[in-house]
Write a structure and sequence with these properties.
The structure is a single chain. The longest helix is centred in the N-terminal third of the chain and has 22 residues. A hairpin with a 2-residue loop joins strand 6 and strand 7. It contains twelve helices and seven strands. By secondary structure, the protein is an alpha+beta fold. The protein folds into two domains: 101 residues, no CATH class; 185 residues, DNA integrity scanning protein, DisA, N-terminal domain (YojJ-like (1). It is 54% helix and 13% strand.
């Protein structure tokens, strides 16, 4: 009984020694772990992270069991582990830093920066109307909605228009005999900023091989930025939306408009919540995951 009392006494002394700085420190670590887990969970880096955890567990077990040869080998690997991890997780680390620099994981960013709520709804309506009409005629299209991450490198590969967003103009650009149809249209600050742009293809080896170049380009730019990318398949007329390296398919005019408006509302709500504080609060909410976490479908 005395030993149990000593244990409780020790625990109580430790609890009493906790300061507000310790509480804030623990909360910050919890937030960082939360975002690290959610970031890696649905990416191929998640499997690599699992391998790193298993390697660490193997090292601990080998030390406990005094398995000297295995321990030596594992310790040799760990000694260069930091540099190896930086090399292995370079794309993911770059993506994390870009997200931190943007200050927002969701939202339409530059697309709506200079637009009022009603103007933004009209803009999205014009885009969705054009996309629906292109889908009916099975005219391929690739429309990038720039958000927080600037796409200057991609814009420089195309032709700058800086024109108002209208459904007839979007249809004309993607008409199969138009000079700018074979490329991406980039929307910035509520305007059709550039057309005929070349986008980087997805570097994810797990992307289904049946996906065409447009879909791979949409996934590629969504992997390196926070852009929302609309794709119209010229084979089937299927409307897709790529975000955060994921592809969701099967939209029509109204469901696509609702999806983009929901994205805008999340951005507005997050702005009202106050940046990092809003994100911390969102951890404790029991809302369903955003729609972009839906399982990826492929071109049939």
């Amino acid at each position: 009984m005395g030993s149990i009392g000593e244990v409780f006494s020790f625990l109580w002394s430790q609890i009493k020694s906790i300061t507000w700085t310790d509480v804030i420190d623990i909360l910050l670590v919890a937030v960082l772990l939360y975002y690290a887990i959610t970031f890696f969970r649905d990416r191929r880096a998640g499997k690599l992270a699992g391998g790193v955890v298993l390697l660490a567990l193997a090292l601990i077990v080998s030390n406990l069991l005094q398995m000297r040869v295995i321990s030596f080998i594992l310790e040799s690997i760990v000694s260069v582990g930091v540099l190896a991890l930086i090399i292995i997780f370079q794309p993911e680390l770059r993506s994390i830093l870009e997200k931190m620099g943007r200050g927002s994981f969701f939202g339409l960013g530059k697309l709506v920066e200079s637009k009022s709520g009603e103007d933004t709804k009209n803009l999205l309506k014009e885009v969705c109307t054009a996309v629906s009409e292109l889908a009916e005629t099975k005219t391929g299209a690739l429309i990038v909605l720039e958000r927080k991450t600037g796409l200057g490198d991609e814009i420089r590969t195309g032709t700058v228009l800086n024109a108002d967003v209208t459904a007839p103009l979007i249809r004309n650009v993607f008409f199969n005999k138009a000079p700018l149809h074979d490329g991406a249209m980039i929307l910035r600050d509520g305007r059709i900023f550039a057309c005929g742009c070349f986008l980087p293809l997805s570097s994810n080896p797990e992307v289904d091989r049946r996906l065409g170049t447009r879909h791979r380009a949409a996934l590629g730019v969504s992997e390196i930025s926070d852009a929302a990318v609309i794709v119209v398949s010229e084979e089937t007329g299927t409307i897709s939306l790529a975000r955060d390296g994921k592809l969701k398919r099967g939209f029509d005019r109204y469901t696509l408009e609702n999806e983009l408006l929901a994205l805008l509302r999340r951005d507005e709500d997050q702005s009202k919540d106050g940046g990092l504080l809003g994100r911390v609060k969102s951890i404790w909410k029991k809302n369903p995951k955003p729609s972009e976490d839906a399982s990826e479908e492929v071109e049939k």
